[in-house]
């Protein structure tokens, strides 16, 4: 018998208990051949083993206790299986087992839903925070270049003697346009420089020249086996691209320290023709045991977005000799 809500479900259990009690009374009469004292005792025991089924919907546990005890007594009294009592016993324990199963399944579903909601929220906040940081840094880099355009246009207009009036007017328009663009960009993105009401950060953004300091800081934090390997013809690069490479290395080192503590890490910069290749690989247990995999690896999303922002791409996965590998290819444009 199943447990159900509503009027039909409420009426089902009293009817079932009453029917089994009637069957138990008939069985008691049959088993005792209608003899007086034994019949009365059998009626009491058999009814106690069946009638509590009527309240099993609201009081399943007490009903199960009474039915179990009375059913055992009925089997002893009758010298064998008391059919009605055993039917009530099986029914009440089936109801208890089913309710426990459904309760556990509902609790597990609620935990899964809560975990998924938490992971989704965490991913969204992590991605939002990483995008905000990327936007702040791009704001700094682009603002520098737009400021240079404005300064160079104004310098050319004032420094070139005998410049035609039309040319001077055009240079003045270039400077005005650059200053307007800079104002609008600061109006839209400048607020991203604020972190929880803190004062804006005014220090220069890091580049590839600061990678040695980053490697030293990583070593000081306990990761002694960190090497920086540089190949190719080293050249000054666009500040935005250098910042992207620096942040990718920084996040990859953080992931290695978190998911492969104590592992040796190689950071390699390869100044190839037309591209800067950045790779960070460790000799840890690999992606199957951490290294940025799973919910804790949201930093990989930020690294991919950084690489895509400068037209590059990023690949992650197991290294050729084990461990975990982060490899980015960034289009190379040499600076002046």
TrEMBL record:
SMART domains: HATPase_c
Keyword terms: ATP-binding, Kinase, Membrane, Nucleotide-binding, Phosphoprotein, Transferase, Transmembrane, Transmembrane helix, Two-component regulatory system
SUPFAM superfamilies: ATPase domain of HSP90 chaperone/DNA topoisomerase II/histidine kinase
EC class (word): transferase
EC number: 2.7.13.3
Catalytic activity reported: ATP + protein L-histidine = ADP + protein N-phospho-L-histidine
Gene Ontology cellular component terms for the protein in this record: membrane
Transmembrane segments: 37-57, 63-96
A molecular function GO annotation: ATP binding
Stretches assigned to the Histidine kinase/HSP90-like ATPase domain: 240-334
Record PANTHER family: NITRATE/NITRITE SENSOR PROTEIN NARX-RELATED, NITRATE_NITRITE SENSOR PROTEIN NARQ
Name of the protein: histidine kinase
């Amino acid at each position: 018998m199943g447990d159900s809500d509503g009027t039909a479900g409420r009426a089902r259990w009293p009817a079932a208990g009453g029917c089994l009690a009637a069957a138990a009374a008939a069985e008691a009469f049959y088993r005792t051949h209608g003899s007086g004292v034994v019949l009365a005792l059998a009626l009491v025991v058999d009814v106690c083993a069946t009638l509590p089924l009527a309240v099993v919907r609201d009081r399943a546990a007490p009903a199960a206790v009474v039915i179990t005890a009375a059913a055992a007594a009925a089997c002893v009294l009758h010298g064998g299986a008391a059919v009605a009592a055993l039917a009530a016993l099986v029914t009440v324990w089936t109801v208890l087992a089913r309710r426990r199963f459904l309760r556990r399944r509902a609790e597990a579903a609620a935990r899964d839903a809560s975990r998924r909601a938490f992971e989704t929220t965490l991913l969204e906040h992590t991605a939002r925070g990483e995008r905000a940081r990327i936007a702040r840094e791009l704001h700094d880099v682009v603002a520098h270049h737009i400021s240079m355009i404005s300064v160079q246009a104004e310098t050319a207009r004032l420094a070139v003697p005998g410049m035609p009036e039309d040319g001077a007017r055009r240079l003045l328009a270039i400077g005005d346009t650059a200053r307007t663009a800079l104002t609008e960009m600061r109006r839209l993105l400048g607020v991203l420089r604020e972190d929880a009401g803190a004062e804006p950060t005014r220090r220069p953004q890091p580049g590839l020249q600061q990678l040695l300091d980053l490697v030293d800081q990583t070593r000081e934090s306990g990761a002694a086996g960190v090497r920086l390997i540089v190949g190719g013809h080293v050249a000054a690069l666009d500040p935005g691209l250098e910042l992207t490479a620096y942040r990718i290395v920084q996040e990859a080192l953080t992931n290695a320290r978190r998911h492969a503590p104590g592992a040796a890490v190689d950071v390699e910069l390869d100044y190839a023709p037309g591209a800067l290749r950045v790779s960070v690989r460790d000799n840890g247990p690999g992606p199957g045991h951490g290294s940025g995999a799973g919910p804790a690896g949201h930093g990989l999303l930020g690294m991919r977005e950084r690489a895509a922002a400068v037209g590059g791409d990023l690949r992650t996965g197991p290294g050729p000799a084990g461990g975990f590998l982060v490899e980015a290819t960034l289009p190379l444009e040499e600076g002046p």
